[in-house]
Design brief:
The structure holds two protein chains of two kinds. Helices cover 36% and strands 26% of the residues of chain A. By secondary structure, chain A is of the alpha/beta class. In chain A, a hairpin with a 2-residue loop joins strand 14 and strand 15. Chain A is globular. Chain B is mainly α. Chain B is 75% helix and 0% strand. Chain B has eleven helices and no strands. In chain B, helix 1 packs across helix 10, helix 4 packs across helix 6 and helix 8 packs parallel to helix 9. The N terminus of chain B is likely disordered. The chains are: A alpha/beta, B mainly alpha.
Chain lengths: 535, 293
């Protein structure tokens, strides 16, 4: 057998007196994919960056060996050598396609850059190659796209361009660091297919980093499970799925969102309607270089949510899901339509009644890192709704209420004195939920509330939400893009596309027999239970 | 990847501020300047207007550390009291600029719409005037004196604070945590006080320390031109102006007031730089890492 494309041994990364990565070793073979899986903070990215010499965190010290194609040592290599290797022999795709591309350069410039540097191509040759690459990554109308700027593309298209750039010089190794994490499930499955096809055509070795073992199952041949900077299990993909040896691997397997795994506790079918929305229509005026135009974000949407149940609102980004949440919480003005919460006109409410209405509708946002004020302690954050709505009189009473809210979401009362940066992502999202619940809302809008969490953390938060619904009789409007998660939470499901409802039925019916093609496409995009290697 | 200790942000900022030796030295320097400003009248060895013509134009000596001027007045005493006047003018005028500018900026940034347009066009117009020209115009209308100087410098610096406050407010206003508060039914005043102001304070603090430095210079310039603090009250700019005729025979008359301006401005600038470093999270990570290595 020939030398592995990348061979890593005894890799360690130390920052200050903390060891971030300990004794990591793995091999990646030609045309094969190694999946590195673990939750945030487990050292996945550090490992990949250190192994390829791209780690530039100030103060980080890397030791061990990392050999490219059996000859080039990358740990401790000179900047000159690394410049030749990066982009030329190793390509990189990062998580956020929104910020990995330079907004001021056309796609053509960004793709040809490395070709001119590494392959010494002329401008004309490089341009021809750029066109070829855009075609290979399946970008529609590639000739015209060459002159486009990143902001003119969708998130999925940008990620395709990133892949084109990474593969431009025909590298031996592709490092894909959570390349689909910030994308919709549908786009995710397209990117997975794309990388597999390209890998077959180009014979590239791939290191795919993800927190989601479901995704890894669709791409990897071998898996390395990392936890706290150490390898806890290392095996071929089938072994990981069929005979996981480590308890943590089993936990990651359990945490994957799977279609048909679980459903919420049944709700009484004749529960009273809490929220009824009729003919909701939202249009935005936007300024474009050619003048004003309108974006029709939500078109004639009608739905109702019964007390104690969950309505799942599902669709890709840009389908208008969050706009619906915005109108219900007063952040966005609807153009037309009505919404009634228990008889109260949500859009027409004025004066003092507004405040009471805001109390009755709670909201939890997607990003736990920006939805809490960094300069405000947990106590003060949860205190805010209590103060605003005069729900507890006196400091002592409010402190008690904050402690109770924290307990409700499974956090110790001592967390009240912490600042958001002292909490993990999952803990922050729990605080956000505690905060929303402090005002004792009747309807809780969860806007992609678990989408940016690791799957293992997501599973815990979903369990928490289900338990709270059972115990407190809460009503949820659950917004998401992943049908597996929606199924786990919802009694009714509304599938949205381009601002319109394409399918609106009970969850049981919808999952048993999806009517619309788009619903079927969303379902097919969820990574299946078995790894691809087993099929 | 950063890890967080249990320490609060504020405490961490101070510790980081103290880790940079340049900032520590300049902070100590600033402390001395502030002490002088407060205690000038007690520590000055002579009265600022004690004329002693027989001892005019004496070089620095054991009795007169900074020498004497053309009327035999002690230069050290005059410099100390002049520092007090300069700092007073700078602090009050910048405080005026901060209060007015930040209020205008926050209201414009938070309300948006026509309020923003009107406020910011006024600010643009104020910006269009050269600093000294605007100050001169105000002094010309109201007549010279300490109060006028404060008003002039304060007016000149107001638009800077309005701009900085508005830009920061615009970016903080759309943060999810502010949106969340609004969705919760929280009133505007609570949102402004609890979420907006603390989160825009960083750049404003830095701007304040830098503006203090420039205000000292502006005051010196106005006094030099005879439009600022009026004699017989000593001021650094006026002292330099008065020294012009004697510069060949009494260098100390110009050098010591000049050095005082230099030291004060430098101290404010360096402290401003230090604050900027610790208040910017990106810089902060780098300083922390540097400390660990």
């Amino acid at each position: 057998m020939s030398d592995p494309v990348l061979s890593v041994r005894d890799l360690r990364v130390r920052i200050g007196d903390r060891e971030i990565v300990r004794d990591v070793g793995f091999d990646v073979q030609r045309e094969k994919t190694l999946g590195i899986v673990g939750e945030s903070g487990s050292g996945k990215t550090m490992t990949a960056l250190a192994a390829t010499g791209l780690l530039d965190t100030p103060g980080a010290v890397v030791s061990g060996r990392s050999t490219l194609a059996g000859e080039t040592e990358l740990v401790g290599a000179s900047p000159r050598l690394l410049r030749r290797v990066h982009g030329g022999r190793i390509g990189f795709v990062f998580q956020d396609p929104g910020t990995s591309l330079n907004p001021l350069l056309t796609l053509e410039r960004q793709i040809t850059e490395s070709l001119e540097t590494h392959r010494k191509m002329t401008r004309r040759q490089a341009n021809a190659r750029a066109l070829e690459l855009l075609e290979a990554v399946g970008l529609p109308d590639p000739q015209r796209r060459l002159d486009a700027y990143p902001h003119q593309l969708s998130g999925g298209q940008r990620q395709r361009v990133m892949i084109a750039i990474a593969l431009a010089c025909d590298p031996e190794l592709l490092i894909a660091d959570e390349p689909t994490t910030s994308l919709d499930v549908t786009t995710q499955s397209q990117i997975i297919e794309l990388v597999r096809d390209l890998q077959r055509d180009f014979g590239t070795a791939v290191v795919w980093i993800s927190h989601d073992l479901g995704v890894i199952g669709q791409v990897a041949d071998d898996v390395t499970v990392l936890r706290d900077g150490e390898i806890v299990e290392q095996a071929p993909i089938l072994e990981i799925f069929d005979e996981p040896k480590n308890a943590y691997t089993r936990e990651l397997l359990r945490a994957r969102p799977l279609v048909g795994r679980s459903e919420p506790a049944p709700a009484s079918p004749d529960a009273p309607v809490l929220l009824r929305v009729d003919g909701l229509d939202v249009q935005f005026a936007v300024n474009t270089p050619v003048g004003k135009s309108t974006v029709h974000a939500v078109k004639q949407l009608s739905f109702e949510v019964r007390r104690g149940t969950t309505l799942g609102l599902v669709g890709e980004s840009g389908s208008g899901k969050s706009t619906v949440a915005g109108t219900l919480t007063g952040l966005i003005q609807p153009t037309a339509g009505t919404a009634r919460l228990d008889g109260v006109d949500v859009f027409g409410v004025r004066g003092a009644a507004t405040k009471e209405l805001r109390r009755r509708i709670g909201l939890v946002f997607q990003d736990p890192f920006s939805s809490l004020d960094p300069r405000v302690r947990v106590q003060t954050a949860i205190d805010e709704p209590l103060r605003v709505h005069g729900l507890a009189k006196g400091k002592r009473a409010r402190q008690t209420r904050v402690a109770e809210s924290l307990e409700l979401v499974g956090l110790p009362a001592s967390f009240a004195s912490r600042y958001p940066h002292e909490l993990s992502g999952g803990q922050r999202q729990r605080v956000s939920i505690a905060r929303a619940l402090a005002a004792e809302p009747e309807l809780l809008i969860l806007d992609e509330a678990t989408a940016s969490l690791d799957v293992s953390v997501q599973a815990h938060v979903l369990d928490l939400l289900a338990a709270l619904q059972r115990e407190l009789g809460l009503t949820y409007l659950f917004i998401g893009h992943d049908l597996a998660v929606i199924q786990q939470m919802s009694h009714q499901v509304l599938v949205m596309r381009d601002g319109e409802a394409v399918e609106y039925r009970t969850a049981a019916e919808l999952f048993a027999d999806p009517e619309h093609d788009y619903t079927r496409a969303l379902l097919a995009a969820v990574p299946p239970a078995r790894p691809r290697a087993a099929v | 990847m950063t890890t967080f200790t249990g320490e609060s942000t504020r405490v961490a900022s101070w510790r980081l501020l103290l880790r940079n030796p340049v900032t520590v030295v300049s902070a100590v320097l600033l402390g001395v300047v502030v002490f002088v400003a407060v205690a000038a009248n007690w520590i000055a060895p002579f009265g600022v207007n004690d004329v002693d013509v027989p001892n005019a134009l004496q070089p620095p000596s054991g009795q007169h550390w900074f020498g004497t001027d053309e009327l035999g007045r002690d230069v050290l005493s005059r410099v100390l009291v002049a520092i007090q006047a300069s700092i007073w003018v700078a602090v009050v005028s910048v405080a005026f600029a901060v209060v007015v500018g930040v209020t205008v900026g926050i209201v414009a940034g938070y309300r948006g719409g026509w309020v923003d347009t009107v406020f910011m066009r006024v600010v643009d117009v104020m910006f269009a005037f050269p600093v000294l020209l605007l100050a001169l115009a105000i002094v010309a209308v109201l007549g010279p004196g300490t109060t006028t100087t404060i008003l002039a410098i304060g007016t000149v610096y107001t638009p800077i604070f309005a701009r900085v406050a508005r830009a920061s407010t615009l970016s903080v206003r759309v943060e999810p945590y502010v949106q969340m508060s609004r969705a919760m039914g929280t009133g505007d005043l609570y949102i402004l006080g609890r979420h907006i102001v603390p989160n825009i304070a960083g750049p404003l603090i830095v701007q304040t320390s830098l503006s203090l430095a420039f205000a000292i210079l502006s005051e010196a310039a106005l006094s030099f031109l005879g439009l600022g603090i009026q004699p017989p009250q000593p001021s650094l700019g006026r002292m330099i102006f008065d020294s012009q005729g004697f510069v060949t025979m009494a260098w100390w008359m110009a050098v010591f007031p000049g050095a005082a301006i230099f030291v004060i401005v430098l101290a404010f600038n360096l402290v401003g730089d230090g604050l900027r470093d610790v208040l910017d999270p990106k810089q902060r990570t780098m300083i922390e890492a540097r400390g660990k290595r």
